[in-house]
Amino acid sequence: MSNQNCRICNNPLNVTFVDLGSTPLANSYLSADQLQRMEPIYPLRTFVCEECFLVQVEDFETPKHIFGEYAYFSGFSDSWLEHCRKYVHMAIQRLQLHKDSRVIEIASNDGYLLQFFQQEHIPVIGIEPAANVAEAAEKKGISTVVDFFGTALAQKFIDDGIKADLLLGNNVLAHVPQLNDFVAGMKIILSDDGVITMEFPHLMKLMQGCQFDTIYHEHFSYLSFTTVVALFEKHGLKVFDVEQISTHGGSLRIFALHSQSNRFEQSANVERLLSEEEAFGINQISTYHNFSEEVKKLRRGLVSFLIDLKDSGKTIVGYGAPAKGNTLLNYCGLDQDFVDYTVDRSPHKQGLYLPGSRIPIYSPDRIMETKPDYLLILPWNIKEEIIEQTNFIREWGGQWVVPIPEVTVTK
């Protein structure tokens, strides 16, 4: 039983989804001088609401503490940037955006996406709570408001005469503790015939692929399409279309507008996916009970596999320093006894250490220097991109290990 109530309907949370033990915050990377200090750790338990079926973690830290200074910069994945470029092209065509339109992105990070709208001379505003990340966007010439989004900030925009013709957010909905205030704010800031698009990891895919590592304290909620449709309806917004996309192990992109707007008719995709989730059992508590056992089985398999490699004298290094990797490593009890180091393309992470496991983070150049036998891909959702970038490890017989949804080895 949780000490808090459901984020959407305020019901008591009595049903555990999965308990991943106690871990540090997944993005709380350590500097060398912090290695001699204790790290704050928090229980990482998820619960499912018996009424709205929102899967959610308990709150232990405020968003201000988690996101006030953030280590994640979106602009360092080539595949993600290409995904955003294609989205912008689609949005301009489908929504007929032009130089008099207004695009507002919530959690705009370093301007990774808005830069493509700006290149098409479409006015943009970013909203980003992490000041250090927002600074990177401002250097690209992207106007960015440093704040958390909700009804209060939405009203400030309205008071200044600003509304969104396209309001978008990629992988932000899961990061919001006050979901009702957040969606109510979107209703306020949206122009009369404006459109909202939101992308978020799909809870059904998380369960089907045993993607437990996508659970961490910064992800307050884990969302099904069924739950999101009901949440938006509660606040006077209707979802008129949905796309299933491959990002982050399987995500959804929803399209919504004011309930009273007739600009777009509802796509058949909406009822199709609602029916698919119903057949999966998304509205049945029994569906959620088996997930925990699948996670334990995956942990045992991965640890056993890595023990066998180390016992045979093999060297293992990581690729990437994503939040999901920290959940995986800490839940499985993997540290430098197993993984010598990890590498990351982001200079903002190089020279730091992973929280909990304290594995050092280097530039990818180090792989050529040490020639490891195995590369453990932590951001498995972009494994094809990583394998292509590190194809050179084949020169010495190096192989790649992908841990999710089960341990697989690629030569």
TrEMBL record:
Q: Which InterPro entries does the protein's record reference?
A: Methyltransf_Zn-bd_dom_put, Methyltransf_Zn-bd_dom_put_sf, MeTrfase_14, SAM-dependent_MTases_sf
Task: Specify whether Transferase is a keyword of the entry.
Answer: yes
| Keyword hit for Methyltransferase | yes
Methyltransferase putative zinc binding domain segment(s):
6-67
Q: Which SUPFAM superfamilies match?
A: S-adenosyl-L-methionine-dependent methyltransferases
Q: Which N-terminal stretch is annotated as signal sequence?
A: none
What one GO molecular function would you report for this record? methyltransferase activity
Q: Which GO terms describe its biological process?
A: methylation
Q: Which residues form the C-methyltransferase domain?
A: 247-405
Q: Tell me which UniProt keywords the record has, alphabetically.
A: Methyltransferase, Transferase
Under PANTHER family, the record lists: BLL5978 PROTEIN (PTHR43861:SF5), TRANS-ACONITATE 2-METHYLTRANSFERASE-RELATED (PTHR43861)
What name does this protein carry? Methyltransferase domain-containing protein
- Organism of origin is Cohnella endophytica
